[in-house]
């Protein structure tokens, strides 16, 4: 491994491949590499192995704008997404820039040398390597790959069957003709239910609180028609914008007129389930998009329920026993397998310790500048996606913005850029107006946002497109040296 690069990208998932593309295409003089902690590219889509793994966003917005999605299915399975990531990396020769088994454990900025020094470890060696870079781009998402979130279930030790968390799915697990209880109601649980029900004897989703669900076709009729009559790249661009505008419309609807959106969502579920519909199982205690809206392609979740292969019970757990679960209302659920689809655990910056001149950075004290950089941290950027739309949409804008900043620095003879937050001008707010459990549990480590632009983190692609893609990179809060 070389000892110095102009830019180091950490993470070889969707956002890392995207960042590498823009550095390679827009900043041709820059040397860069991607450091990947695991032995394969793909990030989440290589890590997760649970049955039915799929995107909960359409691939026209979840995919890269520079490498059109060609599969007829807009809601894609995990294997197809992983192959798409690999194909993108190979097409643009980004795979040649990836160094595997290189976990960044610490990064320290040296104000004298104007460089980041990274400690890099290997799973196959005790030797710690050192590498430096002028600019550091973190593309490792925001959750812990080694640990998932599992609440303390009193009495779980009594259960004698198999307990599995989807993040660490055992691919050798035989669930044919087994009784399965899934604890949870989020996107993972809703994805697991129809797939497991194909082989299992019975699948029960035990939820403390329901989730809002939207039923959509897995194929985009408009996209498939357009690809027949115009070039694929044009079709991809048009459908991408159609879906971006649709997602903005639905989110805006959920904020301004939630009751009418709830009515529409319930009407779709009632139509799909018919006589199997039970009001309390599909009536969340919160508003739509206070937590993520779950997509169900081709009504597969509801078809499993209508076939009586899958069941939903809204209740809380009283206790466990050797054969399963007892709920607070007295329902006994026998199980051979318990699946704890209870969520993710937030981990920022890939778990690396970040410091400036030896002083550790407290992420909870940072302010997010345009959702790309952090106050007081030199030559540092992140790729973090949206909570209310496709992850890749925001990551793509962040990566393009990074390329603009790098080029501006070269053109103006600058070597350091630091966002500076003015406490006398702005108030501070929580980073995300989002009540998902994994976000609320991480409030002590998540950065904050400011009360106005450019410190306001918008969950809106149009606003971010104007600010990041077409806006300036030399405002008064972005200080160059």
UniProtKB/TrEMBL annotation:
This is NAD(P)/FAD-dependent oxidoreductase. Its cofactor is FAD. Belongs to the FAD-binding monooxygenase family. It comes from Croceivirga thetidis. Gene3D superfamilies: FAD/NAD(P)-binding domain. InterPro entries: FAD-binding_MO (IPR051820), FAD/NAD-bd_sf (IPR036188), Flavin_mOase-like (IPR020946). Pfam families: FMO-like (PF00743). The lineage of its organism: Bacteria, Pseudomonadati, Bacteroidota, Flavobacteriia, Flavobacteriales. Keywords: FAD, Flavoprotein, Monooxygenase, Oxidoreductase. PANTHER family: MONOOXYGENASE, PUTATIVE (AFU_ORTHOLOGUE AFUA_8G02570)-RELATED.
